[in-house]
Sequence to fold (218 residues):
Amino acid sequence: MAWSVLGKAQLGGLLLSLLGWVCSCVTTALPQWKTLSLDLNEMETWIMGLWEVCVNQEEVATVCQPFESFLSLPQELQVSRILMVVSHGLGLLGLLLSGFGSECCQFHKIRWVFKRRLCILGGTLEASASATTLFPVSWVAYTTIQDFWDDSIPEIVPRWEFGDALYLGWAAGIFLALGGLLLICSTCLGKDVPLPQVAGPTAHHIVLQQRSLMAPSI
Fold:
């Protein structure tokens, strides 16, 4: 089946959204949101994520300890947990709706206008998932910068720095935003496809039927 330019643009939006959703899920699971290196022991590195804190000792092992209580977490990590989970739900729902509304899925019983609405709604959900991914990642990065340059903390105290998960989270948010915008724009700028009309009896056929009924039988 040959796809139109609209169908190819929708497919590109779906692939970008899927890539962003997968990166967002990986970001949530990774513990490398913050990293801390000790000057006294360069062989040991601390990493902190949304669910656990780990100590990475070179040539030994990596020991992880889950957080005991949600309320014991800093405020930015509490909000980040909630928003990242919400982002996964919005992204998955947006992928399903956009998939059913795009030209990739052909259902003869679904009207074209309804398919357009599904695709626009799915793209809007992907854009919302982008916002709920970029906000917690940027908030954690902001608090990390604030603590790093806090003059009230003695210089000998180790400072937390950016982890690899933050960069992956920013990439996930960008992919989700691009995918959602591409889905919305391609659907809004696409031309309306008229629904096929079922041919009914014409006036000429009706007149012929009436004459045949009124004609005397032989």
In short: Strands lie at 34-37, 44-48, 52-57, 61-66, 161-162. The radius of gyration is 28 Å. The helical segments are 5-29, 75-101, 112-148, 164-189, 203-214.
